[in-house]
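Dear colleague,

Thank you for sharing your sequence with our group. We've completed the structure prediction you requested, and as agreed, I am returning the results in plain text so they can be pasted directly into your records. Please verify that the sequence below matches your submission; if there's any discrepancy, let me know and we will rerun it promptly.
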Amino acid sequence: MAYMLTQGNRLFIDNKLIDNPRLGQRYRFTLAEEVAHFILHQDIYKDCKTLDERIEKESLLTRQENWYLETNAKALASAILMPKNLIERHVDELLFTAGNNPGRTFSVITALSREFDVSEQAVKRRLLNLGYHKGSDLRLKD
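Please find the predicted C-alpha cells below.
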C-alpha cells in the first residue's frame, strides 16, 4: 500500500515494500508513482489530511477518472525511472546485439528491467509510451 497526502507533503509506503529485498523494484516504482501523483494530482487531493479522507475523495471519482489518474502517474513514474534518451540508447544497443533472434523483444525487456531496476511490466509500459509498438523492431502489444 502506498499513498500521498499533499497536506504536510507526505508520502506513505507500506513497510513490507521497503523491508523486502525481493520487492525492491516494486518499491522504487511505487515511490516514483506516488511522487508522480503529487506532481500531477495535488490539486485533487489538496484537502486530504488523512488516509480516510483520501479514500473518501477517491470514492467520488468515476472509474474512468481513477483510471486516468493512475495511468498518468504510472507514465510519469516510468519516465522518471527510465529517461527517454537512456531507454532509446539501450534499446538500440540491445537490438543490435540481439540481431534477428526471435525472442529478442523478451530479451530486450528483460535486459532493460535489470538495467533500470524496474519490473518488466514497467519497461513494457515505458516502451509503449515511447511508441515502440508502432513501426519498431520491437513487437509489443498494446
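Summary note from our side: The longest helix spans residues 63-81.

Kind regards,
the structure core
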